[in-house]
Amino acid sequence: MSESYDTPTLLRMTTRVCHSKAIVDTDVENQAPIPKAEGFKRDLKKFVMIPAFGKLRHPLVLEREEKLTAVSEKSPFNRMEMNDTRVGIITSGIAYQYVKEILPEASVLKLGMTFPLPATLIREFAAKVDRLLVVEELEPYIEDEIRIMGLAVEGKALFSKLDELSPDTVAAGFAKAGMLPFDLPAAREKAPGSEMPRPPLLCAGCPHRGLFYALNKMKALVHSDIGCYTLSVLPPLQSIDTTLCMGASISMAHGTAKAVAQAGIEDKRPVFATIGDSTFFHSGITSLLDVIYNKGNVNVIIMDNRITAMTGGQQNPGTGKTLQMEDTNAVDIISLVKAMGCTRVREIDPFDLEGTLAALKEEVDYDGPSVLVTKRPCIQLFRQDPQAVRVVDEAACIGCKMCLKLGCPSISQGGIIPDEEGKKERHYARIDAATCYGCSLCEQVCKQNAISVVAG
Ligand SMILES: Cc1ncc(C[n+]2csc(CCOP(=O)(O)OP(=O)(O)O)c2C)c(N)n1
Question: Rounded to two decimals, what is the model's pTM?
Answer without folding.
Answer: 0.88
